[in-house]
Write a structure and sequence with these properties.
Structural class: alpha+beta
Distance between the termini: 7 Å
Oligomer: single chain
Order of helices and strands: EEEEHHHEHHHEEEHHHHEEHEE
Radius of gyration: 19 Å
CATH class of the largest domain: Alpha Beta
Low-confidence stretches: none
Number of domains: 2
CATH architecture of the largest domain: 2-Layer Sandwich
Helix content: 40-55%
């Protein structure tokens, strides 16, 4: 029996823009998913979060994996992943996705039989913008790799996790799984033939302090649907704003180095305005943003947006924590730039 864990992630800047090849700064967050695994003749998945148990024959998972890959290719030709996203959601709690995802990992990790997986704990809220699916994919790949004694490199774990993310998000950037896999603070850009993933530990060795995570409520749409929503915006409207996010990402790296918090707040708030202009805000995120700005802080939506988690900063974090409590929102200090995927003691 082996046990692994992988962290959540949070975009400091760059969500949605990364899908179109623009850079992002992403931090690994101190909220983790924990998975135990051992080899088996079938595929078993036990999830303590939902008190669920699933089981499939190995060949069924392989078939689902191949079917999902074929559907992805067809959807890619049409630039519309609605069919794949609907198929992945089919069944009780995304049964098709889980079956295809585990089959994909077994196939790409060259595992010879089945696997028994047990999600024992998860601190990452689903649909919150903190990359719960990417952390899960990274942890599953690591767990299967270790159970079969494959000892895959982090780079290979990340590549396989990205293939899993495609099954549920269509054309994800790859940034979420990279942050979860490698940890710390990373500069990410989706480019061919290989994504640009650069650790910022040397450039920004200091901790990112006084950040707060705020849960605005459960999103009504999943990540893939929100990505498709932005994809449907005319390029003439979308592209100039993506270019602005690109410029601000480069500036943010320098701002974080120099601890220029005044400009950092301006960039965070402007980023949120752009994301809202894509139709990604909710009444709750707008209410939270207005309140934090009125207090002299900054706040932005995270991940795919449409609700979920927001990232905020204030020189006196307690002001935000108190205000959010008054407004009825859960908020807590954020532990950023933590360790990536790792083995745990059983």
């Amino acid at each position: 029996m082996i046990k692994v864990s992988a962290p959540a992630k949070c975009h400091i800047i760059g969500e949605h823009a990364v899908v179109y090849g623009h850079p992002a700064i992403i931090a690994a967050v101190g909220m983790r998913i924990y998975i135990e695994a051992e080899k088996s003749g079938v595929i078993e998945l036990k999830d303590d979060r939902w008190k669920t148990k699933r089981a499939w024959a190995v060949h069924d998972a392989y078939e689902a994996s191949h079917k999902a890959a074929e559907m992805w290719n067809e959807c890619m030709k049409k630039k519309d992943f609605t069919e794949l996203l609907c198929w992945s959601k089919t069944g009780n709690s995304y049964d098709n996705y889980w079956k295809a995802m585990i089959g994909t990992v077994l196939r790409l990790a060259d595992a010879s039989s089945g696997i028994s997986l047990h999600i024992t704990k998860c601190d990452i809220p689903t649909g919150s913008g903190l990359g719960s699916s990417s952390a899960t994919a990274v942890a599953v790949v690591k767990a299967i790799s270790e159970a079969y004694g494959k000892s895959l490199t982090d780079e290979r774990i990340n590549e396989i996790a990205y293939e899993c993310e495609k099954l549920i998000h269509g054309t994800p950037s790859g940034g979420d799984n990279s942050a979860s896999c490698f940890g710390g603070l990373i500069w990410f850009r989706k480019v061919q033939p290989k994504n640009e993933i650069v650790s910022l530990r040397k450039e920004i060795p200091h901790k990112l302090e006084k950040f707060i995570l705020i849960y605005s409520g459960e999103p009504k749409k999943n990540t893939g649907e929100l990505i498709q929503m932005v994809r449907d915006i005319p390029e003439s409207e979308r592209n100039p704003k993506m270019q602005e996010l690109d410029r601000m990402a480069h500036e943010m790296k320098e701002v974080l180095k120099k601890k220029n918090y005044k400009r950092m707040k301006e960039i965070i708030n402007r980023t949120n305005e752009i994301l809202a202009s894509f139709g990604l805000s909710t009444p709750e995120t707008e209410e939270i943003s207005r309140k934090i700005i009125s207090l002299g802080g900054a706040a932005k939506m995270c991940g795919a947006c449409g609700g979920g988690m927001m990232l905020a900063w204030h020189d006196k974090p307690k002001k935000i924590l108190d205000a959010m409590k008054e407004m009825g929102f859960d908020a807590y200090a954020a532990d950023l730039a933590v360790e990536g995927v790792r083995n745990e003691r059983v």
